[in-house]
Design a protein that fits this description.
transmembrane helix, transmembrane, elongated, mainly alpha, membrane
């Protein structure tokens, strides 16, 4: 896995080190806890969760994609996996509650 991460880092190095990406990543990681609170509350308290808005799926994808890209930038396998684990957990929770 480390070899794949190193190859991705070499390919994406210029983009990942760009100041705008780092700024955008900071905003997205901050948003992760703030933006998901209302949907999480609704998901946990509603008797049935029949749909999650496409906007929230887009927010999920942006946040978890950013975590995976930051893992590539830092060459951190744990952070790279965290992006995918967070996505999978969100999807499973929505399916189980739905």
């Amino acid at each position: 896995m480390v070899a794949i991460l190193d190859a991705l880092h070499r390919t994406l190095h210029r983009s990942l080190e760009h100041p705008f990406f780092r700024f955008l990543l900071s905003i997205l990681l901050f948003m992760s806890s703030v933006a998901l609170v209302s949907d999480l509350w609704t998901s946990l308290t509603a008797p049935s969760v029949e749909r999650i808005s496409p906007t929230m799926w887009a927010v999920f994808a942006l946040i978890h994609g950013a975590v995976a890209l930051e893992g590539i930038r830092l060459r951190s396998v744990a952070m790279f996996y965290a992006g995918f684990i967070l996505s999978a957990t969100s999807i499973v929770a929505a399916l189980v509650r739905g």
